[in-house]
Amino acid sequence: HARGGGITITAKKAQSGNLAHIIKPAVAKLTDVKASGTGGGNSTATSFNDRDLNTLEGESWFVTLASNQFTLEPGTYKIDGTVPGFRTGAMHGRLYDVTNSKELMIGTSEVSDNSSGQGSIISRFGGTVTITASTTFKVQSYSQSASSTFGLGYYASPSTDSSIYTQVFIEKLK
Questions:
Q1: Distance in angstroms between the alpha carbons of the first and the last residue of the chain
Q2: Assessment of whether the complete model's pTM goes beyond 0.90
Q3: DSSP state of 21
Q4: DSSP state letter for 43
Q5: What's the pLDDT at 16?
Q6: Mind listing the pLDDT tens digit for each residue in 77-106?
Q7: E-only strand ranges, 87-147
């Protein structure tokens, strides 16, 4: 305790443990990164297509990435994702809870020309989720029509840049 000029200042002992999320938000970015000039992949008609996730950036102490799926430890998270498509007709993305076999978040419904022209679209999903046990997730997209090579995204990068497709941003709230 210190007193002076009518002001009392009391210092408390700090708790031990990982308090990094209090000082700065813990945000991880998971992406599908492919070599320049590489399409996002084939989309299969009238079914859910598993999306690639192969790169983890940012704060990663609360998430693991393996085999295009990510696992979160217990806690509360804000999750936002984007899922591109090209010439797929009607399409939407989703976040799927693999551990509990259920759809968790549904993305926006989008429609692209499935025969000619530039038909690029992006479905967006987002929300907050609280999990009480370690849980594995994957990102999927539903396509009305099949589209080879570029159905899961068309590259638009110069010859020296990587192509970026599916993206997921995860902020640990608690």
A1: 32
A2: no
A3: H
A4: B
A5: 54
A6: 999 999 998 888 889 999 999 999 999 999
A7: 90-97, 102-106, 110-111, 120-131, 135-143
